[in-house]
Amino acid sequence: MNRFIIALITVCALTGCFSEERHAAPEDVALAFFSAIYVDNQPQQAMALVSPELKEVMVHYQLASQIQRNMLGLALSDTKVWLGDVDADFFRRSSDAVKVLIQLEGYRGQQLVREDRLLRLTHSADGWIIDKLYDDPFSNNG
Q1: Which CATH number is 21-133 given?
Q2: What is the side-by-side order of every strand in the sheet holding 127-133?
Q3: Residues contacting residue 96 through CB under 8 Å, at least 6 positions apart
Q4: Tens-digit pLDDT profile for residues 88-111
Q5: Half-sphere exposure of 74 (CA within 13 A, CB side)
Q6: Angstrom distance (rounded) from CA 26 to CA 40
Q7: pLDDT tens track, the chain, 142 positions
């Protein structure tokens, strides 16, 4: 009987019966969003990770380059994306909203640019979704 239960759990784990996508961490969702826009040029993938309000705006712009330019204010090529900071820790499981800082490095023309983008994710029944994009939190316009 114990072997049967162990075998069943193993089969479920190997075949994907337990969906990890639904329970992705907020930082993974944020990285996937920026990777879809800046690295993979797949706006449809990014649209699956945002709130209906943001999705409506993204549908209007359609192209990853237009979303970069008009929604994020940062058109880059040959971009690298990595996690900067998360405002929550182990206890975020009880939190409904988390802010994540994503760092970007890419080229605007011939110039290498490094930027930070802050976004807020909220927890819904489907997992974490992006519901707010902030401007560069460290921009000083000078």
Answers
A1: 3.10.450.50
A2: 77-86, 97-108, 111-124, 127-133
A3: 122, 123
A4: 655 555 678 999 999 999 999 999
A5: 22
A6: 20
A7: 555 444 445 445 544 444 444 468 899 999 999 999 999 999 999 999 999 999 999 999 989 999 999 999 889 999 999 998 887 655 555 678 999 999 999 999 999 999 999 999 999 888 999 999 987 666 654 4
What residue spans of the chain are helical by DSSP H? 2-15, 26-34, 43-47, 52-61, 64-66
Of residues 29, 56, 58, the one with CA closest to residue 43: 58
Determine how β-strand 127-133 pairs with β-strand 97-108: unpaired
**Rounded-to-integer distance, Cα 128 and Cα 60, Å:** 23
Assign 24 to helix, strand or coil.
Answer: coil
